[in-house]
Amino acid sequence: MTQHTSSLRTDRPAVLFDLDGTLLDSVYQHVLAWKEALESAGIPLSIWRIHRRIGMSGGLFVRALVRETGRELSAGEADRLRKLHEEAYARRVQEVKPLPGAQRLLEVLTDLGVPVITRDKVAYAKPNPDLFLAAAEALGRPITDSFVVGDSVWDMLAAQRAQALGIGVLSGGYGREELETAGAYRSYDDPLDLLEHLDELGIRTR
Predict the structure, then answer these.
(1) What is the distance, to the nearest Å, from the Cα of residue 174 to the centroid of all Cα atoms in its chain?
(2) What is the pTM of this model?
(3) Starting from the edge strand earliest in sequence, which strands make up the sheet with 116-118, in order?
(4) What is the DSSP letter of 138?
(5) Is 61 left (phi over 0), alpha (psi -120 to 50) or beta?
(6) DSSP state of 198
(7) How many CA atoms lie within 13 A of 110 on its CB side?
(8) How far is 204 from 102, CA to CA, in rounded Å?
């Protein structure tokens, strides 16, 4: 879904999307994969605690979860946990589907000339703002003229730190009040709901 820069420079605001839980119905596959990885390392942790950290970078995620257990991990052990998670998620990836309206939302925005990008590889992941700053730079748009669409409080925190407008979707399992308290300018049920309310973002569809 990532698009490159040369053909996307425009005077329209850019829309920067998180992927898991925002465009893909994949949050709970990640939760179960982390549960499996942690248990294999002898770290029991409730599923709800794992879910509350989904959306953070892998490194921050491991440190935050392990801190809750009071157990210390070496750098090697943390790396092994991330690898176990990747393997467990790969076994579930066939279950992952686009969220309702995700593909159509991207198509409509593209047809309207709105620059759209998804990014997942930057120096520091959420809640640091680097992911969205890099995405806006790739599109040649000021981050202050961009919308960040995400499903977690970590997305909204990163959007605030980047000085972008955060748009929340509930499809990652966070509540509307949580997302808006974390800085979401608007929140919608899922990509389809967002598509039906693009005018609220000042994006004209007609």
Answers:
(1) 12
(2) 0.85
(3) 116-118, 14-17, 146-150, 165-169, 184-188
(4) H
(5) alpha
(6) G
(7) 13
(8) 18
| Percent of the chain with pLDDT strictly greater than 70 | 90
pLDDT for position 141:
85
Q: Is the pLDDT of residue 146 over 70?
A: yes
DSSP bridge partners of 116: 15
The answer to whether the beta carbons of residues 30 and 55 sit under 8 Å apart is: no
Q: In whole angstroms, what is the distance from residue 199 CA to residue 109 CA?
A: 12
| Of 168, 160, 166, 88, nearest in space to 129 by CA | 160
The two structure tokens encoding residue 182: 């974390």
- The answer to whether the beta carbons of residues 149 and 16 sit under 8 Å apart is yes
Q: What residues form DSSP beta bridges with 141?
A: none
Q: For the segment 35-87, what is each residue's pLDDT rounded down to a tens digit?
A: 999 999 888 889 999 998 888 877 778 878 778 888 788 888 888 988 999 99
| Residue 122 pLDDT greater than 80, yes or no | no
Q: What number of residues does the chain have?
A: 206
